[in-house]
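Consider what follows.

. . .
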Amino acid sequence: MSSSPAFATDHATGAYYEQRAAEYDDWYTGRGLYADRDRPGWDPEVDEIVGLVRGLPGVRTLDVACGTAFLTRHLRGYVVGVDQSASMVGIAQARLPDGLAIVGDALHLAVADGSFDRVFTGHFYGHLPPGERAAFLNEVRRVAVELIVIDAARRPGVDPEQQRQERILNDGSRHHVYKRYFSGDQLAQEIAGEVLFDGDWFVAAKASWTQDSVAAAARG
């Protein structure tokens, strides 16, 4: 096992999410393996997060690691979803009749400099180890002037950083991913932004910058 954790560049993690696509929404909706989990207050917080997404101004948005578009479909304006999993993208496209879902690399986005108003990402940033985190934030600053991150809240008794968090799929297969949990303030500080939501299960933060800084990021 490598001593350096990876996520976006890890082939085993990519295979796990491809395999998980058909059951991914179970995590949000409490079906399947999540049906018997004790998650007090979970459903109301999911509703709050969906409401937050729906309430965002309608602009050109690139959703990085869009998954099945469970959250993406609630974004207003023109939306492009990107995910490395073809199966995730297939589900996402069916939910984005007025948008587009494509297979792509989150750390090397195949879009022009400054081509979007916003980058949105849900439950992706918290999986990125330091090197991938920096690469992602650099790409975000190249393509947009705003970033909104939704991720998992830090909870009592849960290690806030887990290099090999075990995940089990419906077929019984076991997988491991790198995973971090945040307070709202921590997430906002990391992306140099402000807190949008700080709950028991979810956190959200927003960062923005000028078009001049986008041009500077593109120049490297």
Q: What stands out?
A: The chain has seven helices and nine strands. Residues 11-219 form a domain with the Rossmann fold fold (CATH 3.40.50.150).
